[in-house]
Design goal:
Helix content is 50%, strand content 0%. It is globular, with a radius of gyration of 12 Å. It has four helices and no strands. The chain has one domain: Orthogonal Bundle (Non-ribosomal Peptide Synthetase Peptidyl Carrier Protein, Chain A). The termini are far apart. Helix 1 runs antiparallel to helix 2 and helix 1 packs across helix 4.
């Protein structure tokens, strides 16, 4: 069963890619670039996702962002911070 972070991440990625994909069909291990996300789109996707999860962007390092190559990476990283007070 997907976590809340995974569900919200799938929904946000679905909205970020064109054409939009069914959130349930997004593969966790597929590179975000394989979904057509550019560097800027990745940043926008992560910014929106952090807003939806109430994760302060200040928690993320440049290395964190660089290492988030797949949706699994995104979920894993943001799960550590979701629910923490800013």
């Amino acid at each position: 069963m997907p976590s809340d972070v995974e569900t919200i991440a799938r929904e946000n990625l679905s909205a970020a890619i064109q054409p939009a994909a069914d959130p349930h069909e997004i593969e966790l291990e597929l590179e975000l670039t394989d979904y057509g996300l550019t560097s800027l789109q990745k940043v926008l996707f992560l910014t929106r996702l952090c807003e939806d999860l109430a994760v302060d962007l200040a928690y993320l390092t440049e290395r964190d962002v660089a290492e988030m190559r797949t949706l699994h990476d995104v979920v894993d990283t943001l799960s550590r911070y979701a629910g923490k007070a800013s």
